[in-house]
Structure formats: structure tokens, C-alpha cells
Amino acid sequence: MNTLARRLAGAALLSAGLSFGLAATPVLADTPKDTLVMAWQFDDIVTLDPGEIFELSGAEYGAQVYDRLIRFDVNDVSKIYGQVAESWTVSDDGKTFTFTIRDGIKFHSGNPLTAEDVAYSFQRAVKMNKGPAFILTQFGLTPENVDQKVRATNPRTLVFETDKVYAPTFVLYCLTADVSGVVDSKLVKSKEVNGDFGAAFLKTNSAGSGPFVLRQWKASELLSLEANANYWGGAPAVKRVLIRHIAEPATQRLLLEKGDVDVARNLKPEQFEPLRGNDKIRIVQAPKGTLYYFGLNQKNEVLAKPDVRKAFKYAVDYDGMAKTIMNGLGTVHQAFLPKGFLGALEENPYTYDPAKAKELLRQAGYPDGITVTMDVRNTSPSMDMAQAIQGSAAAAGIKINLLPADGKQVVTKYRARNHEALLYQWGADYQDPNTNADTFAANPDNADDAKAKPLSWRNAWDIPELTKKTAAAVEERDSAKRAAMYQELQREVLETSPFVIMFQQTEVIAERSNVEGLVWGPSFDSNYYWKVSKK
To answer: Which family does it belong to (predicted)?
Structure first.
């Protein structure tokens, strides 16, 4: 290693404050065998509370620390298996699900996990009514009735009642979501302050039973996990996982090549090929049910015009970005259901056509074009995409002023509907098509103080008729008919919505070749560290 490169690596590690429980001094040798060190951009984490987690990085964290009632097989998502639940039955009328809770599970605190903890976790999420609560409230659960509808009848039996009949797989897939993470009710209740359900405590602490225990979180800096040696499924092979927020892909690559980190998560396409020739590094590709899109806030009277919305869809150079910025990181995909989901539409009707976009703007009353601000997460590839869109849109008569910020700032602004345009990612919450239909094609209440706040609400898109169609699709029990209903919904959203959906993500991970056992699933909350080991 030449002197300059050594200094760069040392400076990068020093600025990151990387340490292994000792002094924060640069380490220029391989990482300890009992520690997995990961470089990742996780500035989008807002909270570590499973009742509130609603960002991709937070969801991945939750999957390591909290067990869930049930999960799906990452290699075959049609297969659902019990985690906290040992087994379950569905009543003849299809509205009551009864789960037998596995015996012998203990929380990190040493408290036994019982059906009461599962019931409390669901009740807590519904009563707090944070972002992911809709996954449960869509079954008719309210703060007033949830204690009766979700209850423990004994320490090993949980009853979950829905308001009407749904496809059983839809209910079960919803219960694989982050919001079903089981919290230690005794611990959380002891940390309540002014009736907050322990939310202040769980924002920066953990109360789970999973294979890892939270040790430290510093926003946009460090996430430190320690192995749960008493995990009921078997102790992890590594003693700890250290995740550093390393914003620059070039720095991630440098640290990976020197062995100062074991995994790099945010490399650019041009960095992959040189690494493929390095026998100490492997490149792993994991197709995700995650979409890159930008939304146009319909509170803005200019962006609310149908022809303006459509003009944006012709102002994006999809193929150009696919061949450069997104080469290997994603494929062009314009419908709201990712490939692999029931009813997913594989039609991409929009191509880059600046002349057509200009004509649409003229028809809308803006022959001289428009100007809009776009919020964007200051990470790769989001910033690269935003700059490419800025360039292609300029030729279409749309001037875009970019407002880069860290993920936490961007998503907080988005949730308050204070943006004009915003570029972001959306990951499926569960493996049923309603997960995306309910956020891109439904908005039951467009008021600022609405209880449900899907992406349609965030962009103030008021769609009562489309909302009814989405509700009807989730009740259809015939799979073929249901798939056709979702295809119709996708076509309508493609035609009329304020969403410009561009790509379906492929996560590309670079690992040191001595790392084994990491699982990269179809969603970020199905990325698992539990079985990782280092040769």
C-alpha cells in the first residue's frame, strides 16, 4: 500500500471513529474474526422502535433485534413459517386467527416471551398510530377495540380477529411486517413516560428477543449490535456487528479492499468490475421489491395539473440512467407493484421525450416551462439520479432545483407534506400486492390530520374512487381475479398519478471472501446477519 493510500485509509477510519471496543484508532489490518464490520449509508434511520420504524435501514435493524410472530422464506416467499408462533389455525368464518406461541423464548432482559407480549406489541402499535400502524388497523383494529380483538387467552395462545373476511395469506403476510416485532412488555411498560408506551426509550434502546442486542446508535454515524449468546435459535457465530455510516462509495471501496471493513453496501456500478478481479472480494446481487420514484405534491397548484404530472413522466431519461447510474443496481420499472408480486405489471409506457413533455406543459398553460424544487437524500445513487433527472428535465422545459439533505431530514419533511417534488425509495412492507396498492393507490382521508398517511396522502393526491377499487382488490379471494384488479389499478396510477416510478432496485453488496452466511433477501427487513461467520 503506498503512503498516500495508507493515509487516506487511516483518515477515513479515524473520521469514522471505528473501534472495536478499544481506542478509536485506525486499524489497517483485517477486522477481528469475531466482529462483522459493515460500511453502509443508513442516514434514513429516524427511530429504532418497531412500532414506528418505517424506513429501509430501520427495517433491516429491526430484523436483527426483534423476533416476529411469523416470517416468509427468503428463497420462496410463497412459504410462510412461524417464528414466535409455533403454529396457527384459521376459523371457519375466516375472521379469527389463533396462534400457538413457541415455548422457551426469552427476551434479552431474561424475561420469558409469552402471548401477552405479542398482544401488547400489536396493541401498542395500534394505539401509538405511527407510520406502520396501518398494516394492523386495516383489519378494523382501533385504539378502542384492539385490546378485545388482539388478546392472549393464556401464556401460549394469541387470538387475532379481523373485521371481515380477507384472503388468509394477505393477513398472514401483514403479520410478517416490521410492526409485528415482539417487544418485552414488562421492560417497555417500566420505561413509559407520560403514557408514551415507552416510545422515548425504544427510540434509542432495544427490548427484543432476536439474535442481536442493540449496544449503540449514533445517527448517521454508528450502529453497534452485540450477539445474544442465549438466543433460542442458537447464538450467532460473531460476537458483534459494527455498522458505520460511510457516505462516500469511494471510501467504502478503499476500506473494503484493505480489509478494514468486511462488507460495503453502496458502491457505484463502475466500481464493480475492478473488484470482480480481486479474489479476496465477492460481489453479491440481491433483487429487491424496492422502487425508486419521485412524487409531486398536489398541494402545489402547478404540479396538480394532470398534463404537468404527465410531462414529468416524459422528462426522465430512464434508459440513459439504466445504462449508467443504475447499471447493475436496478432495472427500469414504472408500475407500483415490483416484479414477483401477484398481478405485477411489466409495462413501461414512458420513454424520454422532451418535446412531448414541453407540449404537455404548453397545454397546461406553461409554454415557458416551470420551476420546481426536489428534495433528495444526499447519498448514492439518489444524488446521481437527481442530477440526471435535473439535466433531462431541463431539456423538457422543467427547471429543477435540488435540495439535498440526509435521509432523516428528507423523510421528516416528506411526512409533513412540505415538499414540492421528492425523490426517494419505497420498499414493500410485506409480500402481498396490497402493500404497495394501499400506499400508491389509496388515500382514504386527504386531510392534514388524517390517521392513515400513505404515499398518496404524503403527495396530497385525493382519490376516493381509486381508494374504493384498492379496498375491493384486497377482499377478492380468487387469485386470478385479484391479479387482474391490481393490473387495472397499476395502469390507472401510471396514467394519472403524481408518482414517477423509475426503477426496481437490485441491491449489490461487496463482501470480503472470508465472510459467509449473510442473507440478502427480497426486502431490507429480510436481510439477516444471524448466521454470518468469518473463516
So the answer is: Belongs to the bacterial solute-binding protein 5 family.
- pTM for the full model? 0.87
pLDDT at 11 over 70: no
Count of C-beta atoms within a 10 Å radius of residue 240: 19
Q: Confidence band (pLDDT; 50, 70, 90) for 393?
A: very high
Identify the residue with better confidence: 25 or 477. 477
Distance separating alpha carbons of residues 15 and 8, to the nearest angstrom: 10
Q: Output the CA angle 146-147-148, nearest 5 degrees.
A: 90
Extract the C-alpha cell encoding 531. Answer: 448466521
For the segment 127-158, what is each residue's pLDDT rounded down to a tens digit? 999 989 999 999 999 999 999 999 999 999 99
Q: How far is it, in rounded angstroms, from Cα 439 to Cα 459?
A: 11
Q: Which three cell numbers stand for residue 453?
A: 398517511
Residues 6+ away with beta carbon under 8 Å from 509: 263, 264, 265, 283, 284, 285, 286, 518, 520
Q: How many residues are recorded in the chain?
A: 535
Matching residue, cell 386470478: 480
- pLDDT reported for residue 29: 57
Single out the residue of 508, 504, 43, 42 nearest to residue 292, CA to CA: 504
For residue 428 the three cell numbers come to 414493500
Give the whole-angstrom CA distance, residue 273 versus residue 48.
35
pLDDT above 60: residue 6: no
* Amino acid in position 135: I
What local confidence, expressed as pLDDT, does residue 312 receive? 98
Does residue 338 have a cis peptide bond before it, meaning omega lies within 30 degrees of 0? Answer: no
451 neighbors 445 (Cβ within 8 angstroms) = yes
- What value does the mean pLDDT take over residues 272-288? 94
- Nearest by Cα to 397 from 446, 448, 355: 355
User: Per DSSP, what are the bridge partners of residue 332?
Assistant: 503
Give the CA-trace dihedral at 243, 247, 249, 250, to 10 degrees.
-110
Q: Is 427 helix (H, G, I), strand (E, B) or coil?
A: strand
Contact (CB, 8 A) for 473 and 485: yes
* Complete DSSP assignment for 246-260: ---HHHHHHHHHHTS
Contact 312, 398 (CB under 8 A): yes
Looking at residue 302, the DSSP 8-state letter turns out to be: T
d(CA 243, CA 140): 39
Left if phi > 0, otherwise alpha if psi is -120 to 50, otherwise beta: which for 328?
left
Q: What is the pLDDT of residues 286-322, one digit of tens each?
A: 999 999 999 999 999 999 999 999 999 999 999 999 9
Tell me whether strands 240-245 and 421-427 are parallel, antiparallel or unpaired: unpaired
